[in-house]
Amino acid sequence: MKKAKRILALVLSAAILMLALSCASFALDSDSVTVDLSVYDGSVISPKQELTVTDGIAEEYGFTVSASDHNGVTIDEPTVFDALVAAHKAMYGDAFTKETASDYLVMTSGFITKAFGKSASSSGFIVNGRTPNDGIYNELYGSYTSYACDTAEIKDNDYISYYYYQDTDYWSDAIADLSADNTEVNVGEAVTFSVTAFSSWCGSMTEEVIEMNTVKCPDIDIYAYSDSGSVKVGTTDAEGNAVVTFDEAGTYQLYCAGSADVGLGVESPLVADWITVTVSDTETPDEPAESDSFLFRVFKTVVYVVKVVFNIVVDFVSDILGKVF
To answer: Of the N and C termini of the chain, which has fewer Cβ atoms inside 10 Å?
Structure first.
C-alpha cells in the first residue's frame, strides 16, 4: 500500500509539473501586453496610465489595420494603434463600441485623423522616448524609417506617449525627458528633477544625433497631477533642474510643461513626460527586485496552485486505494 502511494505521488507530481509548466508558458506567450500610455495636447487629456492591450483589439472594433510593415514583415504583436483603441475603451467605457468607435477614433492607412473625439491630423506618438522605427539606416534622410501606428509593435512595460502638435506652423514640438521615474523619497526630503528635450524631428535618428541635439530646459514647470487638477510643484532653473519637496506621503504623478529652445530658432512646445514619485513618512527597505517581476508572480501563483491541487488529489486517491486494499 505504501509503495503504491509513493508511485502514485510520483506520477501525479510529474503530471502536475507538466501542467504548471504549460500554464506558465501560456502566460508568457499571451497575445496581450501591459503598457503605460499618456495623451497630451498642451493640456492633459489622459495622464500616464497602465493598460492591458490585446493583439487584434483594433479589428474587434471594426478598424482595418496593416498585416505587414513597410518592409513586408508580418505584424503579429499588439501595436501602438491597438493601445490607442484600448485607451479609448478605458476612457469612454460602454459608450465606445464597434458601432460608435468612429465617433472617437479614425485611422486610415496608418494615419490617425481623429482621436479622443477631436481632429488628430496633426498628432504623433513616441514609444519609450523615441519614434518607433525599423532600425535600418536611410542615408538619404539620415535617419531610420518610422513605423505607422498600426505597424509599430509594442511589448510589456513600454511607455507610449501620444500627442497633438501644439506648433502647427513649424512642427517644432520637442520630446521632453523628466528624470527620474519611480523616485522614492521621504516627506520633507529635497529631491532634484531635471528636464531635457530634443526636437521631435530627431525622433527616428541615431542615438548619437539625438544626444547631440538634446538640451537642458530652463523655465519648465513641473506639475503633480490628480483627478481634481494639476498643482505646480516646481520650475526648472537655468540648468534645467528643479528642487522639490513633498509635505504629504503618497504616490504622485508628475509631468512637465512649457517650451524650450531646441535649436530650431523658435520656442518649441514640450510633449509632456510623466514620472511616478513615491513619498513615504519613513524610510522603508527596498523590495527585492524579483517581487515586481511578472514571471516571478506567475511562478509563485503556479506553485501555490500545484501544492493545493496535489494535496487534494493525493488525499482523494489515497482514500480510494485505502478502501480497495
So the answer is: C
